[in-house]
Amino acid sequence: MLAEVIECYNITFHTFISIISCIMLHKNTLLFAALSAALWGTTAQDVNAAVVASLKPLGFIASAIADGVTETEVLLPDGASEHDYSLRPSDVKRLKNADLAVWIGPEMEAFMQKSANQLPEQKKVTIAALPGVKPLLMKGEEEDEHEHGHDHGAAEKGDEHHHHGEYNMHLWLSPEIARLSAVAIHDKLVELMPQSRAKLDANLKDFEAQLAQTDKQVGNELAPLKGKGYFVFHDAYGYFEKHYGLTPLGHFTVNPVIQPGAQRLHEIRTQLVEQKATCVFAEPQFRPAVVEAVARGTSVRMGTLDPLGTSIQLSKQSYSQFLSQLANQYSSCLKGD
Fold first, then answer.
1. For residue 216, what are the contacts with CB-CB under 8 A and spacing of at least 6?
2. Distance of CA 107 to CAs 15, 101, 140, 162, 222, Å?
3. In this structure, are residues 83 and 207 in contact, taking their beta carbons and an 8 Å threshold?
């Protein structure tokens, strides 16, 4: 066995003994790990390689396709917001070592643009840039002074790295775009792991069938709620609302990191009453007191929408669970009188 190792690594017996002695001497240090890796060919990349998704809902899609082939990990921690997150050194390393990185694009995840740009094209899926997705993009709304006023200058300064572009980039809330994303993830993984093609093909087929079934169920659940007006905390849900024919009256803010100004809150409260809104929705990532303040003293109910599915674990069924949960969150608040 010893002779085979020496021959395999093309080293002399004397060098081999020196390496082993050095490893034993420094076994409690980083050098031990480095020398072990050099000798035995075990690298962090071998250990940590996986599909790395920027946001949890993209992880839901990726985990269904990669199931039984490779692990799926999510960069954005539960409870954090994609609008103001910054990558940690360990996140940068995970992206660098990933089999495949999945993200929306720089207009949504500004926090990972630099790392994503350094990845080769065959090792990333940029959903906003997929040919089938581009025709489906919805225009976003620009932030403006009338919406926010001047009472949050500090918040604006802290958010300079985040920019809203021309389009609404909350693409994971579209079942149609989710299916196109699944196809793109499947195709990249087949290129990277051709030996797993049969399993990847089966996973995609399962995902598409499950998505079609869930889409129908959610459509049936939300159909009676068409025409019931409501306000959401931030401008995230357009794809979901358009797909299922819901009737939003407006939103508190375009960028949830920036609290709406006093004038904007007064306008929303007026609209809630005049347009007979049924609900106002907060979000678990922000729990803004402004939502409670605006609804107080009116007959408008308060609900919570979770656009990131923070309580859902990654699995083959998780994207369908995510759509169903969001539908339940809408209907539980809207289906009243």
1. none
2. 52, 16, 11, 8, 30
3. no
* CA 58/CA 74 separation, integer angstroms: 8
In the predicted structure, residue 305 carries a pLDDT above the cut 80: yes
Amino acid at 156: E
Tell me what the mean pLDDT of segment 170-178 comes to. Answer: 97
Largest distance between two CA atoms of the chain: 87
**Worst-scoring range by mean pLDDT, 16-30, 147-161, 192-206, 248-262?**
147-161
| Number of continuous H segments (helices) and E segments (strands) in the chain | 15, 8
207-245: pLDDT as tens digits? 999 999 999 999 999 999 999 999 998 888 999 999 999
Q: Which residues contact 289 (CB under 8 A, 6 or more apart)?
A: none
Please tell me the distance from the alpha carbon of residue 243 to that of residue 40, in angstroms, as a whole number: 53
DSSP strand pairing (72-74 vs 100-103): unpaired
Q: With 60 as the cut, is the pLDDT of residue 24 above it? A: no
pLDDT at 14: 54
Spatial CB neighbours of 211, under 8 Å, sequence gap ≥ 6: 175, 178, 179, 182, 319, 320
